[in-house]
Amino acid sequence: MADEAPFQFLHSEVIQYVFGASDSGDAETGRNITKVESMGFRVGQGLIERLTKETSRFKDELDVMKFICKDFWTCLFKKQIDNLRTNHQGIYVLQDSKFQLLSHLSAGKQYLDQAPKYLAFTCGLVRGALSNLGVKSIVTAEVSIMPACKFQVMIQKI
Amino acid sequence: WGREQGRGSQGRQMERNSELFTLTYGALVTQLCKDYENDEEVNKQLDKMGYNIGVRLIEDFLARSSIGRCQDFRETADVIAKVAFKMYLGVTPSVTNWSPAGDEFSLILENNPLVDFVELPDNHNTLVYSNLLCGVLRGALEMVQMAVDVKFVQDTLRGDNVTEIRMKFIKRIEENLPAGDE
Amino acid sequence: WRVGIAVIAKENYPLYIRSVASQSELKFHYTVHTSLDVVEEKISAVGKSLGDQRELYLGLLYPTEDYKVYGYVTNSKVKFVIVVDSSNTSLRDNEIRSMFRKLHNSFTDVMCNPFHNPGDPIQSKAFDGIVSGMMVQTG
After folding, report:
1. ipTM reported for the complex surpasses 0.90
2. What is the pLDDT of residues A20-38, one digit of tens each?
3. Which PANTHER family is this protein grouped with (chain A) (predicted)?
4. pTM for the full model?
5. Host domain of residue A40
6. Is there a contact between C112 and B30 if contact means CB atoms under 8 Å apart?
7. Is position B96 within any domain?
8. Are C125 and B116 inside 8 Å of each other by CB?
9. Residue A55 and residue B5: Cβ atoms within 8 Å?
10. Is 3.30.450.70 the CATH classification of the domain at C3-138?
11. What DSSP string runs through A34-65?
């Protein structure tokens, strides 16, 4: 069964719908990124609720992050995060060396500008999942070499 | 990684990946409900987005299934139900209610994965929640030179026992003409 | 009341409250509210004691002469509280457990309903149905 295809097609179409065909200004782009991110946020909230239904309670923040890297990522993309680093002061860097939602973009430099559009939803997924587990954060993503991608999670201390 | 619990079997992973799709679709529908004033506009937009997906999906489908050109509408109906739905949504609708002329049939879904968890609020009584599917079918078939009309006639979200998608063959599109204008 | 069920948000406000009242509704609210302190205590004890199972089911929170209060907490820090009459001795621990599990499953579906805003009171026919079933079963 081509079970990852429906999501990929839908995700592309959502990007297409929100960003439109034309190149808009920076302010507009920012608003659109926020829109896609917040859709991801809501999906992340729901998914993590299902995913943690059978698991025992988390010990601490690191325990939660490991779950995101392993179980949550596998649920989303059928693979785990390849590398998790932390400065032990609330910053975590999650690296996916072959990020599924970028793999269809070509490696050319001109496509690098397009990458943020394709990362916003996933940033939202992670932020939504963490938020629902009681961890407030800011999640950003960057691409250096396609299709490798780093997600940075900054925990917001209350 | 120290955590032992929560590792799904293969089957459960499959189900989970479809949950990502189902929930993302839900987020899209609710976003459209915010973006547009009324349900009719949302239905239209869902159909349009489905169409865009359909015209791209068909290539993926033909590549994966290695199915050749269908001889007639009946064969097309079987391929849609038994191969396409199964492949992408993991369900196999039944093909029934053929019109005497053989140009219309229904796809009956006992279980529509798009609406798992969905409870429609009262203020959306004309929303066709799964309307994306109509667009997908229309778009995909257009790329194989078939113009069809697709609509929901029953919906479990509305309290019907099953979900029924009605498909009507309109015409064969000449290959040398540009298909569609959307 | 003979039985009452409450769902409490992470921030400790009620998302859902229902009781079969034989006494005042207010007293039920009060009981639930009091139980939250015990829940917090149990949650924050995580990791402090050896051999801690970190189960979602928190067990009997406290008994009084009139009723028993049971608690359960999801990983999203939403709390479920079930209050039953002390005279109801037919309910066993594993039955309470399975009631919580049913509530949790149904709550998860509510969280996945795209029209539900997480943090809003639960308005769901499916969830109502599950709760009603429990009221009949235990009442």
Report:
1. yes
2. 866 667 778 889 999 999 9
3. TRAFFICKING PROTEIN PARTICLE COMPLEX SUBUNIT 6B
4. 0.91
5. 5-155
6. no
7. yes
8. no
9. yes
10. yes
11. HHHHHHHHHHHHHHHHHHTSSSPPP-SHHHHH
